[in-house]
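Q: Hi! First time doing this. I have a protein sequence and I read that you can turn it into a structure. Is that right? Here it is:
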Amino acid sequence: MKENENLSEKVKFYRARKGFSQEQLSEESKLSLRTIQRIEKGESSPKGDTLLKLTIALGITPDDLLCLEKVKDTGYLSLMHLGALGFLYNPALGVLVPLILWLLKRDKIRLVDSTGKNLVNFQLTWLLATTIYLVVIGAGITPVNLMRLVPNTISKIHPLVVPVFLLYGYNLTMIIINLRRSQKMKKSKYMPVIRLIK
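A: Yes, that's right. Below is the predicted 3D structure, encoded as structure tokens:
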């Protein structure tokens, strides 16, 4: 009975994600409305042709429905955090790599959905703050001419460069802290964030 309840929750979740009512899912899948209702109440479990029609209408695979519980995978969570280190090479990579990893497994691995949202929102917030500083406050500093401001001697570092190092250091620190949290299967705590992805 518990398996049917878990499966019914999955069907409801994927139906809602598609924006279908039970009636629309019935039409799309060519299954009776009563069948959809029984599946969503946990009274029956789709098998064979019913399962195939349902998954095609929902745009998912049978494994998406039959994999009833999200697995624990600290390795994948760690990979997401480490992927954000791409910001050291190119700030856009700090957003793109975690975004792709999040989209691939957000429904399959425990904590990936919340971690991905927090991480991508944080990286977007960081990118926005860094861009504002470099372009507006930093009087038109761009990453290209940033290195020209750093003289050969450390004692004469241009004062506009220091906040950039602090911004990069803060991003790196947040990634390391949350990497450790994910290895203990704890929720990530990236802050500050502007909730662009909800």
